[in-house]
Amino acid sequence: MNNYLQRILSFAFTHGIGITLCRDLSPFTPSGANPERKQIVINMRWHRPQQLPYITAHEIAHILNEDSGLLYFSGTAKTAIEGQANRGAIDILIPIYFQDIEKEFADMYAFMNEFEIPGFMEDYVSQSIQDFYS
Questions:
Q1: What is the 3-state secondary structure (H, E, C) of 47-82?
Q2: What is the pLDDT of residues 76-117, one digit of tens each?
């Protein structure tokens, strides 16, 4: 498990979010969240393992947003709830990723590539990084 994922899991624990890490699901089974129970399930065999920190932060965002119902990771923001969870994931990841990087060395594209964040999030990522350093 990489350092970023460990730090995101720690973030979840400090916010009272329960986590189940599954290693027996299909690589194409999405991770999910149950906000009512404050519980997330992360598929550790996801076919794009580099996305796991982003996916985990996305599921945590569902809990923090107090979304309703059972929610499953989708790489697209087809609903307002998923879009908000994507933005929440960025808000969780930015301070973790950039905490030891000086502003002049902040690279939005390196950040997005590190976690395979979808390109449609570029504007939000750019603004969030600017806000982080303000």
A1: CCHHHHHHHHHHHHHHHHCCCCCCEECCCCCCCHHH
A2: 667 889 999 999 999 999 999 999 999 999 999 999 999 999
